[in-house]
Amino acid sequence: MRRGQQHLPQRKPSGLAGLLALGAIGVVGLLSTAAPGSSAAVSAAAVTVRSVYDGDTLTLVGGEKVRLVQIDTPELGSGECYSRAARKALVAIVPAGSRITLETDRTLDRVDRFGRLLRYVRRGPVNVNLELVRRGAAAPYFYEHERGRYAAAFMRAAAAARAAKRGPWAACPRTRLDPYRQVDTGTSGPPARASAAPAPAAAPLTATTPNEAAPTSPGSNCAPSYPGVCIPPPPPDLDCKDVPYRRFAVRWDVPDPDPHHFDGDRDGVGCETG
After folding, report:
1. Which residues contact 232 (CB under 8 A, 6 or more apart)?
2. Cα separations in angstroms, 196 against 25, 131, 191
3. What pLDDT was estimated at residue 238?
4. What's the pLDDT tens digit per position in 182-196?
5. Which residues pair with 67 in a beta bridge?
């Protein structure tokens, strides 16, 4: 029960109508108390997309607006770099007429101050919120430092997208990976039409789960202290649970050694447990 909610006493219904009402309450109660990772956390009935407003907001056929939770994209109409491309990426995955399901997170608010539903959106097996981050079209955004059930997966996907220079990570040099702030890609200049590259829309859909992470190869955007894997330097500061690697080499003879503090005992091996 979230803050401000109270249960008021009610009269018990009687007769056949009462039995039916109590049965319905029992079903609702069973769904509402299901474990966060269970299928009951996902809407039983699919809904239909009427339109896509921007890279992280859409409208359903019934008129409800849905804000994709735990991610953020540049504000459309603000002149921010990659804002139009971010919308195109969402349209490519869930165009008007798409059938989707909405998944709630019991650790997060259900509705924002604008009345929009805060949800993970799924199209078939694909977590659309996570897919947008994987493509580089969105960045993780943990409002008020609240981390939902897919937070670690969002961070892994964002680090991989940044290392591969997908989307704004290449088109908008000002972009920074900070999940506790709204994404800031800077203002588009005259050449910013390149930011509307079709790469995000062309990328294949990938069904992802909280524990999945695409492997990356070492590159120029990888912290030199971790030579065998590709982990970008801070910010943000990552924990072992935020990366898919275990027992990897850590060098201490480079500038800014072990910036994420993966090798607490300084034996040259990072994330030995967990």
Report:
1. 159, 162, 163, 177, 221, 222, 223
2. 49, 18, 11
3. 81
4. 999 987 644 434 333
5. 57, 118
Domains and CATH numbers, the chain: 40-212 (2.40.50.90), 215-274 (no CATH)
Secondary structure of residue 111 in the 3-state scheme: strand
* Beta carbons within 10 angstroms of residue 142's beta carbon: 21
Residue 137: both structure tokens together: 């079209």
How many of the other CB atoms lie within 10 Å of CB of 125? 10
Residue 259 corresponds to which amino acid?
A: P
Tally of CB atoms within 10 A around 163: 19
Residue by residue, DSSP assigns 26-95 as HHHHHHHTS-TTSGGGB-SS-EEEEEEEETTEEEETTS-EEEETTEE-PPTTTTBTTHHHHHHHHHHHS-
Angle at which helix 151-163 crosses helix 128-135, to 10 degrees, equals 20
The tokens of 172 are what? 């908008």
**Rounded Cα distance, 17 and 100, in Å:** 34
pLDDT tens for residues 167-178? Answer: 899 899 889 999
* Alpha helix segments (H runs only) across 183-240: 199-202
The two beta strands, 99-103 and 47-54, are antiparallel
Contact 229, 245 (CB under 8 A): yes
| Residue 255 neighbours by CB under 8 Å, 6+ apart | 224
